[in-house]
Write a structure and sequence with these properties.
Number of strands: 0
Radius of gyration: 14 Å
Number of domains: 1
Shape: elongated
Distance between the termini: 44 Å
Order of helices and strands: HHHH
Structural class: mainly alpha
Oligomer: single chain
Helix content: over 70%
Mean pLDDT: 95
Strand content: under 5%
Low-confidence stretches: none
């Protein structure tokens, strides 16, 4: 039950922020997306939903890419 609540809160927040018109808000989408991933992994493992587990790995990679672009490489780029 807790994992479903966390997936809903973090996942929906990530998707909502990814569509925001403000770049300063959009950059938080991958943070919330990554926060949701451990709950996806646990829920998929607990239910033996291996296809969902594989999708969670792919989503985690996509959110990690977004985190890298929005936070890591953005910090290295001179403004």
């Amino acid at each position: 039950m807790i994992e479903q609540l966390a997936i809903a809160v973090f996942g929906v927040t990530a998707v909502f922020l990814s569509q925001d018109g403000r770049a300063s808000w959009r950059r938080w989408a991958p943070v919330f997306g990554l926060l949701s991933q451990p709950f996806w992994f646990y829920a998929a493992w607990k239910a033996s939903q291996w296809g969902v587990f594989v999708l969670a790995v792919l989503y985690a990679a996509a959110w990690a890419r977004g985190f890298w672009i929005q936070w890591i490489s953005a910090a290295r780029t001179p403004r």
